[in-house]
Structures are given as C-alpha cells and as structure tokens.
Amino acid sequence: MAEKKYIMRAAALAAAAACVMMTGCMSGGITAPVSTSNPQTKTSYTSDEVFEKLSAALSEYNNDTEFDAVLSQEAVDGAVDKVCHFYPDYFWLNGYTVTTNKDSTSVSFMTLNDYSADELRTMHEELIRAADKITAQVPAGSDDYGKALFVHDYIVNNTRYASEKLGLSYNGLWGTAYGCLVDGSAVCQGYAEAFSLIMQKLGIECGVCAGQSDRGSHAWNYIKTDGKYYWVDLTWDDPEAESSGDFGKLRHNYFMMNDELLLRTRTLNERQYYVPVCDSLDRNYFVMNNAYLNGYFPTEVGRVLAENADEGVAEIMFADETSFRSAVDGLFGNDEIWELSGYTELGYSLNYSCDETMYVLHITY
C-alpha cells in the first residue's frame, strides 16, 4: 500500500494515495490426481469412507493407503479435498496418485521435500506446539469475533511475507501452516492454513478457499461466527515488506468481509471443498469499531480519530466510492483534516494511505 506524508500547509499534495498492489501467491496445497490405470468406477466405498481411511493413515504419517475395491475418481477427489479442509496441519501433502488394479485401489500422497515419517512426526509436533502457544494467548472471555481478531493480528504481526518464493515451479514449507507458524515465513496458502488450523482448535468453523485475484492466484479463509459466514484475508492485511515506521502496522481492510467486498478483488476457483454465502457485515472490523461511514462527514472522521488517539492509527471504511473520494479530496485536497485537530492532537504532520478498491482510509497521526 503506497503512503504519503501529509504536512500542514504543504504547497501541494496528491488527492489520493495509490491503491494496494501486491503480487500473487503460489498455492502450496494438494494438486490434482496424476492418473489411474483402470477405467472402472465401481466402488464399495463412499467419499466419506475414503476420507476416514486416508485421514487415519496420515495421522500415523503413512502416505500410502490401500482399498480392497475399485474407487471412483470422484470419491477420491472428494476425500482428498476433505482431508485438506479438516487437517491443515498435514503440511507435507504435495499431490497424490491413484492407481487401480482389477479389484483394488492405491492412493499415495507425495511428501513435501521427501521428509521421512520420523521427520514428519517431529515437525508435526512442532507445528501443533506453535498453534497451541497462540491459542493459549487468546484473552480470556473473548467471543468468537475477538478470538479471530486476536489470531489474525498475531499471525500478521509475526509472519514475514515470503515474496521471494513467488513464481517458483515447486512447493515448499512457505505454502503451509508449518512455514507460517514455525518458520515465521509464508505465502498466502501458509497464512490461510495457519489461520484455519488455529480457528479449528478454538472450535470455530473455518476453511481455506482459493481463486484468481487482481494480483494473481491467491488463497484466503472463510469463518463462521454468531451463525453467519465471513471472509478473512490475512495476507492482504499484512503490510508490504518495503513499508517502514507506522506503515509497517497491520491492516484490517480484509477482516470479516461479505461477498460483495470479497468479489471486488477476486473470483473463486471452480473446485472448492465448501464455499459459504457471506451476506452479512455485522461482524466486519469497521462496523464493530464504529468506523464504517455511509458518507463523508468530517465530524464522524474526527470522532474516529479521537477514539483511536491512544494508538495514533485510524482505519476508516466508506460504504461507497463517492463518499470515499469525497473524504480523500476534502481531508487532504482541501486541508479539512487540520480542522479536526479539536478532536485530538494531530501534530504538524501525519501519514495517510488509501485502498481505492475497498474504500479504506488509513491515517497515522
């Protein structure tokens, strides 16, 4: 996200900061099945039964599972999708093959970096300890929204975005929950799987979805709180690596979005384990913090600045583009920001940045 320093009585200043631009992320998840050697599709196993047997084997770090029947490709695909959804801690899964004989089927997962079973066990225990360490820090008495916000902020503040891994032709730990929580470095898939893992540990329904964004291929989360579904994108709330000072702070532009907000920047891949309907803003970050404005009202901006004076950072989302642009033009084009100094101490200079797609104004003062 580009940012500008705004100085009182400055001679000239652009009306709006540039919108966020980040490169896409490479998924580290399961790839499509490689092949089958027999066209038969008759099977005595349902997809759920295949899932149970696969997950039981994987829990023992056994990546090869035999079935005494010919499985349909649909049953295997559905089972693998379910494994990836419910077990984001199985970080080593890196594709799978399906081999059928006359009356049997073998499903074999390829292992990331060819780790041995002993290595996987040790690394898996490290990952679970790292996740448990975070859950133990969630403030007592937090509701589901508060738990999700704490984990969102913790992951963003403690993970380095592995931009150097983008575009590689192979997967690595940076695309997994292990990379995020143990190594502290990940791309979007790692952020999303880590968040899903911890939410599930906290008893909150959460999953990973993927698609094509205006910055490339991407992965993010959905979450269910208070009976409603929302979208969460930790990666895009992580500030750019070149940011410094106050602009190294996390954002909440993509925390608890509805479908309309999400689809401004991306589309969903066709194959997903589950895609919820997210039609509420009740638990949206800006709504929850009284910083969602239906128009440009300087007094309301002043109120938000005053309410966030202790942190010196105000995040404001506008309901529509017209209100957003009026705010940016009025506050920084017409110097109206300084008229709000009666609400809180603004000093001689401040920084601001804009997300022109999400209609978010971020002010550090």
Brief summary:
The chain is an alpha+beta fold. It is built from eleven helices and 15 strands. It has a five-stranded mixed β-sheet.
Architecture overview:
The two termini are 17 Å apart. This protein is an alpha+beta fold and 365 residues long. Helix 5 packs across helix 6. The longest helix has 19 residues. It is elongated. The strands form four sheets. Strands 1-14-15-13-12 form a five-stranded mixed β-sheet. Strands 10-9-8-7-11 form a five-stranded antiparallel β-sheet. It has a three-stranded antiparallel β-sheet with strand order 2-4-3, with helices on one face. The protein has two domains: 270 residues, no CATH class; 67 residues, Ribosomal Protein S8, Chain: A, domain 1 (2-Layer Sandwich). Helix content is 32%, strand content 21%.
Listing every helix as H and every strand as E from the N terminus to the C terminus, the arrangement reads: EHEHEEHHEHEHEEEHEHEHEHEHEE
Summarize the biggest pleated sheet.
5 strands, mixed
Computed structural class: alpha+beta
Average pLDDT score: 88
Q: How much of the residues is beta strand, in percent?
A: 15-25%
